[in-house]
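User: Last request for today: this protein with 5'-deoxyadenosine, please.
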Amino acid sequence: MSGAAERTVDPRMADADLRAWLTEMDAVALERLYAAADAARSATVGPEVHLRGLIEVSNTCARACSYCGISVHNKAVQRYRMGREEILDCARRAKDLGYGTVVMQAGEDPLLSGEFIAGIIRAIKRDIGGLAVTLSLGERSEDDLRLWRAAGADRYLLRFESSNPRLYARIHPAAHGHPPVDPGAAEVPRVGMLRRLQELGFQAGTGVMVGIPGQTWDDLVSDLRTFQRLDIEMIGVGPYIPHPATPLAHDFDGAAEHGQQVPNTVLTALKMVALARLLVPDANIPATTAVATLDKNNGREDALKAGANVVMPNLTPIKYRALYEIYPDKACVNETAEQCHSCLAARIHSVGRCIGTGFGEAPKSHRRSA
Ligand code: 5AD
Ligand code: FES
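Assistant: Here's the final one, the structure of the complex with 5'-deoxyadenosine:
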């Protein structure tokens, strides 16, 4: 096996090289990886950092994901669901702040009906205009997805969290009409859903958490290969952050004992960002809130320097922010939309980049629609 100094950063690198980069701990070697990813970012998506205004429309969720602080397990959470006018006010705010995209995100909330969301998409497109609409509403029915696409939604985010069916099944128990996942399946169910989203004409985004109990380095290699295979438009990676009110926070798996457990650190996330950029050069890659949460001073900047080109300022009204606690101590819980905006603008400029204009689509989405 070659040493770090010779190891390739070629996008065609082998699984063994991916694994070696993921486990690399030498700071000088890692600078070379980040510099290669930064050069790939510059050559494909350029210097612009696109802002996606995030609206957390409901913290109500019918699912039982064992890592998530707002799952149906957590009886202590006070639930909310934003109204139509509140959501449209946030979208107008996005427009005023110059954003090209709004992201409507929520738990899997059955009372966010297909028609309710479709009506909001139409109103954003018709009455506000100039905004791409991204949805991140969980695993919804084919009918809902078709309705939302027809109403004008442009993109859909659905992280598959882990491409290892055994790990995926363990953290996604059956709930609310979703049958148990087969741990022996060839691929995790959300990968099929992402293909379906692409077929329906959505630009699809996905991603994973790193450092899930039981997750190994080989799992991360397989996650990277899955991004590549899907030729996905957006890739979000963040560290898993245990939430004390969730079952997974109290669950330990044998991977740790075998020295294979991936650490849930910013460092692991940054390596994944860089490798994702090298393998899928024209994807949009956010500097995620989970990275910013574990490193409030430099997390976003470091991600932007390791291949990221998107940030997602939070537009959720302050009274709801703290209730969308998917993990503890989440960044930006007490900041207003304007504060997040100026904070992010300063961070983007501090790393020598500029704020993007327009919708900020991944170059490949033009290829696909062409
Ligand atoms: N730690 C880190 N990320 C989390 N997410 C959910 N729960 C956690 C957690 N405890 C991420 C998942 C989900 C996204 C919206 O937030 O990847 O897809
Ligand atoms: Fe919200 Fe910095 S981005 S405070």
